[in-house]
Amino acid sequence: MFDAPGPRFRRRVFWVSVVSGLVLLGLVALGLRQFAAGGQLEPVRWRPYLTWPVWRYLLEGLWSTVVAACATGVLAMAGGLLLALRPNRFTHAYAEVMRTVPVLLLVYVMLFVLPSFGVNLPLFWKLVVPLALSHAASYAVIFRAGVSAVDPGQREAGLSLGMPDGVVTRFVVLPQAVRHMTPLLVTQAVSLLKDTSLGYVVSYTELLFNGRVLANYNGLLIQTFIVVAFVYLVVNLALSRLAHRLEAARARTAR
Length: 255
Known about the structure:
MetI-like fold, mainly alpha
């Protein structure tokens, strides 16, 4: 779709990256200096995070986050697949609308609006259902792109053998499309995992909620949220690394 960048453009990107990196390092250094001036870097403030009870509490929140993310992912992928395989005005409109509506707004609808109509779900589903409704639209786009990347001749070959269109889609097109979609699905999982942090709105005991409770208990607000951010960083970097590996494997297979 685009021409390969030339040497001038690559040099420009290099220097912009260097300047951006220096600015970022400067901001980090400034932040550390302010923390040190306020006594936030004193060892006594970080000592609680070297104990197992604190980490056990945070890991319990991480486990709840993973459970909510997995449940959301299953529902969102099922919904996205249905939207992708049944293209019509409704499915296209749903995908476009849900990709523009903030997830937090859907959570508020589930939390405050639906109970007034007698629909009051457990806390777990008050988080999972809005996330699944939102991410189903993104998964639908991914599935459509994966199906479009399959050679049309594959479908034509299946139909020429007398196979029904649905059978061709399930057993010929989708297995090949998965190879193209897998890196994107893993990348979408990173976004989904981050969105589970909205669980604090419905008081679902995920990682961020447990971090807030812990900070209120020990009074170490900055230290607690830095540790929570570190946990999110490690998990999301692992998922991003997995996506890069899958993309590289797919590229090697395509050669």
